[in-house]
Amino acid sequence: MTVSVTELPATQIEPPAKPVLLTGTFLAFDFGTRRIGVAVGNSIARTTQPLITLHGEQNDARFAAIAELLKEWQPAALVVGLPCNDDGTPHEMTRLCRRFANRLKGRFNLPTILVDERYTSASASTQLTEMGVRGIKQKPLLDQVAAQHILQAYFDEPKMAFFA
Fold it and tell me: What is the pTM of this model?
């Protein structure tokens, strides 16, 4: 499948007007410097579920774990949450997430999609609280549930996403 999407300059957060149309299994990532939350979903059924939280700061170990997940799930594309300030301007984590997305794309040669992740950690925390998981007990689950929210945001509004 060939899809043409305009790449954005590093300082621009707003996505292009063209929708991203891919189908199948997707893996989503909520990137952090200490943890990476991972979720899986299917674009046809529009279902998502938290999968795992990768711990540690060693890139080799992180990418080896991601390679195993890709082998297991055979995704059509990868989705990475792109954090930004409330007003849409980038900050340091924006740059790091773009870098992570570009590394995923380069290492695994899969379409890699960036999605605005503002408020996904807050909504993930609310969801966990509603499920009875509170306080420190949320920590092992929060990042993977946030990744689930990132992926659901892509499924709900693919036109708001853009390729890395």
Answer: 0.84
Residue 42, φ and ψ in degrees, nearest 5 = -125, 125
Q: Do residues 45 and 26 lie in contact, with contact meaning Cβ atoms separated by under 8 Å?
A: no
Distances 87 to 83, 108, 114, 125 between C-alpha atoms, Å = 11, 32, 18, 22
| 162 contacts 20 by C-beta, under 8 angstroms | yes
The pLDDT tens digits for 116-158 are 998 777 887 788 788 887 888 788 888 999 999 999 999 999 8
Strand positions, DSSP E, the chain = 25-31, 35-42, 47-55, 77-82, 112-116, 162-163
Contact 38, 147 (CB under 8 A): yes
Tell me the C-alpha distance between 24 and 74, whole Å. Answer: 9
Asked if 163 and 111 touch (Cβ cutoff 8 Å), the reply is: yes
Where are the alpha helices (H) located in 113-163, listed in sequence order?
120-130, 139-156
**Which structural domains are found in the chain, ordered by start?**
25-163 (3.30.420.140)
